[in-house]
Amino acid sequence: MSSWVQPARAIEVYESALKSNPKDDALAEKIGQAYVQCHLYTKAINYYEAALKSGRKPLMRMRLAELLFELGNYEKCEKTLRHALDADSNPVGVLLFYFIFSSGVRNEKEGTVNL
């Protein structure tokens, strides 16, 4: 059985549960993560962006930024992080991720790796 079958089935279960409890951010996060596990990155990005529009802002915005960073879409990642900084009243986590993001991008441009 393929490794993506379990996350694909999980997506169905999570989406069904989310219909019963549409404000459950933990379920929404699990759906996005399951898309990533299935290597359905575009679906994950679209899902996170839709979740942002429906009010699941802080967590979904961070998950979207993480995914964009992992995919090398640094410009969109930075834009997402800037929106998070503007919207979050306590942006400590966002600032930390932004610092890591900017360090990683700078190292990639310079061809260096920090271990």
TrEMBL record:
Q: Look up the record and give one Gene Ontology term from the biological process aspect.
A: protein localization to cilium
Record's Gene3D superfamilies? Answer: Tetratricopeptide repeat domain
Q: Which Pfam families match?
A: ARM_TT21_4th (PF25068)
InterPro entries under this entry?
ARM_TT21_4th, TPR-like_helical_dom_sf, TTC21A/TTC21B
Can the keyword Nucleus be found in this entry's annotation?
no
The record lists the membrane-crossing segments as none
Q: Which GO terms describe its cellular component?
A: cilium; intraciliary transport particle A
The residues covered by the Tetratricopeptide repeat protein 21A/21B fourth ARM domain are: 27-90
Q: Keywords on this record?
A: Repeat, TPR repeat
Protein name, UniProt field: TPR_REGION domain-containing protein
Provide the species name.
Gongylonema pulchrum
